[in-house]
């Protein structure tokens, strides 16, 4: 047995959980190795010291009350998503039909194969306008699929649309507007929450920041509102203080949302 | 969690009651910030609600919970930057109240140990917190981190060694 072998097994040795034969080997090694004996002693001492450190006490009552409020908000949001909302009822009459999605997918495949061939055959240094064109088409098709998914009846399809949007390198203004529209009007809480996450990528755009700020009072789910407060805190820059101040004082908002805005104000130093 | 996944969302309150303390302890020891740890606990449970469909019966609930907790913590650091650790309540570890000399000395040692722990690389600290304070086995830690138990043993030993070195470097009387 080598000194290096002991390390990973030291805790089990100290705990006495090693099999007898291995225990005997380690004992034999320790009997003749002062360095390893010192190592075992120091480890045992540190282990005990660590154990003596008291556990931090959770403020359980406060935490539970806060979570109950968030949970209730989430449950209410779920219930709300089951009723047909005004926004859902006024969605554009023309929906993407399955054959349109299928065509989109087929187009993606053909363009992908074409791109693959060009990329492997053409010398990498040469700028090929056809490749640029194909890339452009691929990007457009992806955007089209994203927009199509965001219009679907099924919430999981719309969630897929949001995921797809995050894979677009340079999403068009149309995609960003669709995400904002989803945040404002989607009947499903999870979809709206995911759209807040997706919009973080575009928090540098004035229109997005403004859109989120304006959409917040219209949200009915405190959970989504809290996610939006976080967005504002991160993205709104110098304007964050005034927006958060307004939210913290808005008695029409859920108490948990106001509390989040107040904590945000403390974070930005007000 | 199965009931929650099937739509009985109110049962999440039971899970919160049962698991928020160890989760808080984990996140507090990782961030060193009580307020941040409380916020992150909320985020973990909300994320469990949102991703409840991804819960599988074949693993332990705690494994799933700690995986989510690690992601939540990583997102927190991405948003707010890596934690520059400033202990917010050393009272938990070291009482400054006058008392018998040996108790005061002991409290100082605890505070030094806490500083040493926070000086460790995050992945090392995480291992020590999971094994020593959460009482997780090498296999359980391996399931959370996605590595085998043997790898956990080696990494844990390395982490403990680094902690010893860090502890010896924290000046006495701190």
Summarize the structure.
The complex is a heterodimer of chains A (270) and B (174). By secondary structure, chain A is mainly alpha-helical.
Our count of helices of chain A gives 15
- Main β-sheet of chain A: number of strands, strand sense, barrel status? none
> What fraction of the residues of chain A are assigned to beta strands by DSSP?
under 5%
Shape of chain B: globular
What letter string, H or E per element, gives the SSE order of chain A?
HHHHHHHHHHHHHHH
Largest interface: A-B, 37 and 47 residues
Can you describe this structure?
The complex is a heterodimer of chains A (270) and B (174). Chain A is mainly alpha-helical and 270 residues long. Chain A folds into three domains: 3-52, no CATH class; 61-92 and 166-267, no CATH class; 96-150. Helix content of chain A is 74%, strand content 0%. Chain A contains 15 helices and no strands. With 174 residues, chain B is an all-alpha fold. Chain B folds into two domains: 2-80, Rna Polymerase Sigma Factor, Chain: A (Orthogonal Bundle); 95-169, Arc Repressor Mutant, subunit A. Chain B is built from eight helices and no strands. Chain B has helices at residues 2-5, 12-31, 34-50, 61-80, 101-119, 122-133, 138-145, 149-169. Mean pLDDT of chain B is 81; it is low at 93-98. The A-B interface holds A 7-11, 42-43, 46-47, 49-60, 62-64, 66-68, 70-71, 74-75, 78, 190, 193, 223, 234, 263 and B 9-10, 12-13, 16-17, 20-21, 24-25, 28-29, 34-35, 37-39, 41-42, 45-46, 49-50, 79, 92-93, 106, 109-110, 113-114, 117, 128, 131-133, 150, 153-154, 156-158, 160-161, 163-164, 167.
């Amino acid at each position: 047995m080598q000194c290096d072998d002991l390390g990973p097994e030291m805790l089990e040795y100290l705990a006495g959980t090693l099999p007898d034969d291995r225990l005997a080997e380690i004992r034999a090694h320790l009997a003749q190795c002062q360095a390893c004996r010192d190592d075992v002693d120091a480890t045992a001492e540190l282990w005990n010291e660590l154990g003596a450190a008291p556990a931090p006490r959770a403020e359980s009552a406060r935490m539970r009350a806060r979570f109950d409020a968030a949970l209730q908000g989430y449950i209410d949001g779920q219930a709300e998503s089951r009723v047909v909302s005004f926004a859902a009822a006024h969605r554009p009459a023309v929906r993407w039909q399955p054959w349109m999605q299928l065509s989109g997918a087929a187009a993606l495949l053909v363009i992908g194969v074409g791109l693959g061939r060009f990329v492997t055959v053409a010398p990498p240094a040469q700028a090929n306008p056809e490749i640029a064109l194909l890339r452009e088409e691929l990007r457009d098709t992806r955007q089209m699929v994203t927009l199509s998914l965001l219009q679907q009846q099924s919430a999981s399809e719309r969630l897929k649309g949001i995921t797809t949007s995050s894979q677009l390198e340079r999403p068009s203004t149309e995609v960003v507007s669709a995400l904002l529209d989803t945040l404002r009007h989607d009947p499903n809480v999870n979809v709206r929450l995911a759209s807040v996450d997706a919009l973080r990528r575009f928090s540098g755009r004035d229109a997005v920041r403004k859109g989120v700020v304006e959409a917040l009072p219209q949200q009915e789910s405190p959970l989504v509102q809290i996610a939006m407060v976080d967005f504002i805190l991160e993205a709104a820059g110098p304007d964050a203080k005034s927006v958060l101040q307004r939210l913290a004082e808005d008695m029409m908002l859920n108490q948990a949302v106001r509390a989040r805005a107040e904590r945000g104000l403390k974070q930005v130093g007000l | 969690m199965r009931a929650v996944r099937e739509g009985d969302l109110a049962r999440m309150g039971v899970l919160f009651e049962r698991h928020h303390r160890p989760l808080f302890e984990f996140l507090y020891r990782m961030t060193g910030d009580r307020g941040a740890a409380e916020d992150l606990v909320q985020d973990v449970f909300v994320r469990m609600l949102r991703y409840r469909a991804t819960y599988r019966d074949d693993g332990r609930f705690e494994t799933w919970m700690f995986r989510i907790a690690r992601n939540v913590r990583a997102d927190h650091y991405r948003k707010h930057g890596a934690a520059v650790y400033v202990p917010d309540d050393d009272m938990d570890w070291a009482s400054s109240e006058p008392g018998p000399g040996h108790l005061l000395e002991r409290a100082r040692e605890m505070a030094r140990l806490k500083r040493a722990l926070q000086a460790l690389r995050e992945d090392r600290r995480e291992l020590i917190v999971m094994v020593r304070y959460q009482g997780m086995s090498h296999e359980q830690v391996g399931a959370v981190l996605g590595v085998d138990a043997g790898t956990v043993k080696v990494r844990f030993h390395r982490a403990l060694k680094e902690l010893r070195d860090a502890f010896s470097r924290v000046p006495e009387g701190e």
